[in-house]
Amino acid sequence: MMASLKQLAAQEEKFAGGHRGCAGCGASIIARQVLMAAENPVVVGAATGCLEVFSTIYPYSAWEVPYVHNAFENVAATMAGVESAYKALKKKGKIKKDLRFIAFGGDGGTYDIGLQALSGMIERRHRVLYVCYNNEAYMNTGIQRSSATPRGAHTTTSPAGKVIPGKLQLRKNLTEIIIAHEPAYAAQATFGYWNDLVTKVRKALAVEGPSFINIYAPCRLGWAYAPEKTVKVSKMAVETCIWPLYEYQDGQYRITVKPKEKKPITEFINSQGRFEHLFKWKDDVPIREYQEEIDFIWNRLLKRTESQ
Amino acid sequence: MIVARTGNEAMAEAMRQINPDVVAAYPITPATEVVQLFSKFVHDGDVDTEFVPAESEHSAISACVGASAAGARVMTSTASQGLALMHEILFIAAGLRVPIVICLVNRSLSSPINIHCDHSDTLASRDSGWLQIYTENAQEAYDTTIQLVKVAEQALLPGIVSTDAFIISHGMERVELVDDNEVPKFLGERKLNYSLLDVDNPVTLGALDLQDFFFEHKRSEIDAMDHVLPIIERVQKEYGDKFGRYYSTVDEYKMDDAEVVIIAMGSTGGTAKVAVERLREKGKKVGLVRARVYRPFPKDAMLKAVTKAKVIGIMDRADTLSTLGGHLYNDVRSILYDTATRPLLKNYIYGLGGRDISIEEIEAIYDELFNIKKSGKVDKNIVYYGVRGE
């Protein structure tokens, strides 16, 4: 399953350059890496969001594979329909090839407005890989909070104010919500660990059932860092355990990349403008609470993998 | 084969015979039965459809869009709030030009919550770019369901075929079914210009369309609506030639010399036909026009039908809440504007939330219209008929 750079580089591009993503856009790297990993022909769907907007401004399209965009909250349902059509037409001999189906949604389209459709898609066991490119806010509409936005982060609807220091609530743990559905495969990934990401996509596309990968997608605009730092920020999220890389299959949890030394979250958040105000705040409560949340989730994950 | 079927059973039978590739649906009163019966067909192996029991109407119609874009023959069923929840995606389906057929049962929209018949649900979706056909009875619902699949696929437009809640959906009637093997033959295979499953010829569907192209694409969708009536007429004729039951976009009853006319939709057409018969026995020159195809509006056929009418009562089973009366009234009033001799018009909003309309009440409406003919003036253009306090 492990991919080699040589092998990946030899592949035809399925997500073309020249699209209108920002310099340093994490979501576009994810689209490219995910499609590179796919060994079968794929059909792609995207929820309304950054990826959809910057990749398909008519008459241009970055997609070298069949692509459909329906609306914001329904990419899971739309792709469930595409997959059902495939099953029906394959049964009747009208389709010969062995195809795979991938849905892309941002955290807005996945954690929030599209959660119901995603839950339904997994419960009905459609063989679709759902990829959430998670940049932790509604970036397409100009950086508003989502349920994936972390504690303390500044967004335009959870601004760093004089009395309220950014978002007060913790992140929703969507990956665990999906795991509770017992999908055929679920994982967290990020492109800084490209080999891990590619391997996970291949596993997800190989299982006969619904699969889900929550891919951490640093956003230079919304997180406010220099564009050339995107991959570094992605890696730092893993080193601080802000974004643990793990997978779930057949009832087993497995941490796929364990940091040699778990770094404090300040090493991640001090690189980004969205957390800048926390370092000037009157107390350390927001940073401490975020650190405690990260420790709690990481330790629980360790226990789950140790007990297996 | 002649059988006894409710409207819901008749539409489900049509769906069984159509044997769509994909049905994605969510149950809702009073259309639940359609989904239940179809589920049984799937589980008994009577169809080889991929059935997607969606977790909401929004997801049901979203899955239909995906499946149709992938080249499948696709159907669903809903009513009222279910159609309202689909509302956003109705426009997308029409804009993406994906054929889908909804077997719909007309039920009031909340609030107040109610499960009975009026046309507020589909009329709230009339501008979504879907074809809309309102049927009078179970037989017509059955026949139209089959016809609409063919029309939708030829026109690349989605469509709704509807029955009146409980009056038709749950009323047992004599229905003549076409032989099972004749329906697929009548429909033929769905022809595709492109498909999401054709990986060798990838297409991008649903691209972001800005100021430089949106208008042209929207114009082409309007153009499709402009050209669909001949397709509907052709399919109605083909169906009639093959199975013996002929339909027209505008259903005329005793209209040849009619001076006083009612225009109505849905099951009220059947009730009004009896009223017309009774009055004709008394020598009164009355007639009925039933707006069967409502979207697009068959303007020419409607004008032709009412050309000799002196007074027209337009019966709307919904209100626009605009102070301008009902939807049908506004449409008819609009097309008559350019005619040389405009007939006198009166709008009767009736039957909201399933309030019954009787033959006698319709006879009384005809009487009132005769009084208008005599006096030559309409005192009140819009009335709410059969409601307390009017």
Automatic annotation (TrEMBL), chain A:
Pfam families listed in its UniProt record: TPP_enzyme_C (PF02775)
Keyword NAD carried by entry: no
Molecular functions (GO terms): oxidoreductase activity; thiamine pyrophosphate binding
Keywords: Oxidoreductase, Pyruvate
Domain called Thiamine pyrophosphate enzyme TPP-binding: residue spans: 48-215
Residue stretches in coiled coil: none
Protein name: Pyruvate ferredoxin oxidoreductase
Origin organism lineage: Bacteria, Bacteria division TA06
UniProtKB/TrEMBL annotation, chain B:
GO MF term set: oxidoreductase activity, acting on the aldehyde or oxo group of donors
Keywords: Oxidoreductase, Pyruvate
Positions of the Pyruvate:ferredoxin oxidoreductase core domain: 258-362
Domain Pyruvate flavodoxin/ferredoxin oxidoreductase pyrimidine binding, chain residue ranges per copy: 13-236
Source organism, top-level taxon: Bacteria
GO biological process: carboxylic acid metabolic process; response to oxidative stress
PANTHER family, per database record: PYRUVATE-FLAVODOXIN OXIDOREDUCTASE-RELATED
Name recorded for this polypeptide: Pyruvate ferredoxin oxidoreductase
